Amino acid sequence: MRVEILTFFRFIAAVIVVIFHFGRDATGFSGVLIAGPQMVTFFLVLSGFVMTLSYLNKKDFKG
To answer: Whole-model pTM?
Structure first.
């Protein structure tokens, strides 16, 4: 399974969290600022899924 698109979504979630932490005054963005806490959860769940896929693929190749 290809995880590149999942990695892209992780990147987008991380950028939204960074924008959330800098605030409206520093970035000028206001719409994505309310999604910061949800993006943290999304990033962590997606990261766990990607790590599980990587672990299972490694395990299949070893034996």
So the answer is: 0.73
Q: What value, to the nearest 5°, has the Cα angle with vertex 56 and ends 51 and 60? A: 150
The amino acid at residue 62 is: K
The whole-angstrom separation of Cα 20 and Cα 13 is 10
DSSP code of residue 31: S
For the chain, what is the mean pLDDT? Answer: 81
Contacts of 10 (CB under 8 A, 6+ apart): 43, 46, 47, 50
Q: Where are the domains of the chain?
A: 1-40
